[in-house]
Write a structure and sequence with these properties.
With 534 residues, the protein is of the alpha+beta class. It is 18% helix and 26% strand. It is globular, with a radius of gyration of 22 Å.
Length: 534
């Protein structure tokens, strides 16, 4: 399908309306058409996006590979309802939408015209199949100053490496939203040799390369009951990282021939859109030429009144390749200016120069609008993490450390914009890190301009020993905490006066009923940059 036609199809399918009866599809009955659950996202002051995806027959990856799958018709009419109560006695909106084969039989309904700062309930129906009732909410009015927002941020949920008990505990956290920061799926096949630690569950899927491969991977992950429950509890704001396509890809650089990689990347991007509560406008080419022919625009802004604004970033799609990466091959595990002068090239960027300008503009807007907290929500660790004791240097080749000029431009944008409070959140590295953000990481005595909370993985293993992480923290005085030994998520409670981050960790990621505990709690006080132990 031509890119233009795909975008038009997605845009028309997302309109929250009622289709004329003559356009309704035939109705399938006595089927469980919603085994993947529902989701909502992109909350605004007057609406949100509702999502589901229809599937008939066994979910791929959960049964023998030769089990036949029942094909769905090219189009199915799905009914949806939104109510002010969970019994649907006061329905405020209802309509119909098309689940189209070209979009993986996914449904994206973009709802507007609702009241700000309130909870709603929703469901989808087709024939006698009805989804479980789910809850979502609108954001406060753009000029309001809410008393509080409470959200979780989480990333890296490799299916075979753990159970999703963290999502079960999120149901008790009284959340307004969940921020997912990447690696919703992992593209790998099951390993041929038993790894250490042992895997918790298995699947039968091959390495994801085609559109159907990626669709099947999302379907597998979304069968998890605890993940489905977390999606039903509140809206999600989502971005991606590398495993939604291929491990350690950066921009147009992946493994193998570039044209083949870009074709595969386009398939992964389409599957991401199909399986996430994203707006159809995310398929546009973006602003100021930011975007690619097959891209999905995941960088966006999400405001919670004047209390905070998320600047959701994309450190993959527009990134320069990792420094000293051989074309078509894996990047180096570590780099240093001494052995890889390329990492100091000022033209290299983690975000792409256009997205850097977009971020700087947004931070200036925050300062002008007197936004209390400006949140840079992105994929990986932002603060400097020198693996060696100064003056020796060694850095991870795939984090911001490998793009020092780009990071400095972001730090300069935070400083010169004069935002009231800057907080960076991230994931990717499967470790909990808490850091002070410096105006210049090459100068350990430079001014503190913000706070960083890099969360651990929900399930994905970490290969870093605890003693090694502490050694790295000791060599980098701006790092206040480094813990690689626990899986979990983080909860941020934000008020006009204070930001509190609680690092929540599971006792045993292999158990679906694992207990959870607070590893540490840090606070950031209004207009006092840098986290402190609570």
């Amino acid at each position: 399908m031509l890119r233009r036609d795909f975008c038009l199809l997605a845009s028309s399918a997302a309109v929250a309306t009622s289709l004329p009866r003559w356009s309704w599809s035939t109705t399938l009955r006595q089927r469980d058409l919603f085994p993947l659950g529902v989701a909502s996202g992109s909350p605004t002051a007057d609406g949100f996006v509702l999502w589901t995806r229809l599937l008939d027959g066994p979910v791929p990856g959960t049964v023998a590979a030769d089990t036949p799958r029942t094909p769905l018709p090219p189009a199915l009419t799905v009914h949806w309802e939104i109510a002010e109560d969970d019994a649907f006695k006061n329905i405020v909106r209802r309509g119909t939408a098309q689940a189209l084969e070209a979009l993986g039989h996914s449904v994206h309904v973009e709802v507007t015209g609702l009241r700000p700062d309130r909870w709603y309930w929703y469901r989808f129906m087709h024939g006698d199949a009805v989804t479980q009732t789910a809850r979502t909410r609108t954001a406060p009015h753009i000029h309001a100053m809410p008393d509080r927002m409470r959200f979780a941020f989480v990333s890296c949920q490799r299916w075979e490496q753990g159970r999703y008990a963290g999502y079960q505990h999120m149901l008790d956290e009284d959340l307004d939203a969940v921020l997912f920061l990447g690696d919703y799926i992992y593209e790998y096949a099951m390993p041929k040799k038993p790894p250490h630690p042992a895997l918790v569950r298995t699947h039968t899927l091959a390495v994801a390369r085609t559109l159907q491969d990626y669709r099947d991977r999302y379907a597998l992950y979304r069968t998890d009951a605890q993940l489905q429950a977390a999606h039903r509890a509140c809206p999600w704001i989502v971005t991606w990282d590398d495993h939604e396509v291929q491990n350690d890809y950066a921009g147009v650089e992946g493994l193998g021939a570039q044209d083949a990689f870009l074709a595969m990347r386009g398939q992964g991007y389409q599957a991401f859109y199909e399986n996430m509560p994203l707006r159809a406008c995310s398929l546009s080419r973006g602003i100021e030429g930011l975007g690619t022919a097959d891209g999905v625009k995941v960088h966006d802004r999400h405001a919670w009144g004047r209390l905070l604004r998320f600047h959701l970033l994309d450190t993959r799609q527009y990134s320069s390749a990792q420094p000293c990466r051989p074309p078509g091959r894996n990047p180096p595990d570590s780099v240093s200016p001494e052995h890889c002068a390329e990492m100091l090239d000022p033209e290299r960027s983690m975000l792409g120069l256009a997205q850097e300008r977009w971020l700087a503009q947004g931070l200036r807007q925050d300062a002008s609008a007197q936004t209390r907290w400006s949140v840079l929500a992105q994929q990986t660790m932002f603060s400097r993490r020198n693996y060696k004791q100064a003056p020796a240097q060694s850095f991870n080749g795939s984090t911001w450390d490998a793009y020092p000029a780009s990071r400095q431009r972001v730090c300069d944008a935070i400083r010169t914009s004069a935002v009231r409070n800057a907080v960076v959140i991230g994931g990717d590295i499967h470790q909990n890190y808490v850091s002070r953000v410096l105006s210049d990481f090459s100068d350990p005595e430079s001014k503190v301009i913000g706070s960083e909370f890099c969360g651990t993985s929900l399930t994905s293993h970490s290969k870093t020993p605890r003693a090694r992480a502490q050694e790295i923290a000791d060599n980098n005085p701006h790092i206040l905490l480094a813990r690689p030994d626990k899986r979990g998520y983080a909860v941020a409670e934000v008020t006009p006066e204070r930001w509190t981050t609680s690092l929540r960790v599971l006792d045993d990621v292999a158990q679906a009923d694992s207990a959870v505990a607070t590893l540490a709690r840090f606070v950031v006080n209004d207009q006092v940059p840098g986290p402190e132990i609570a």
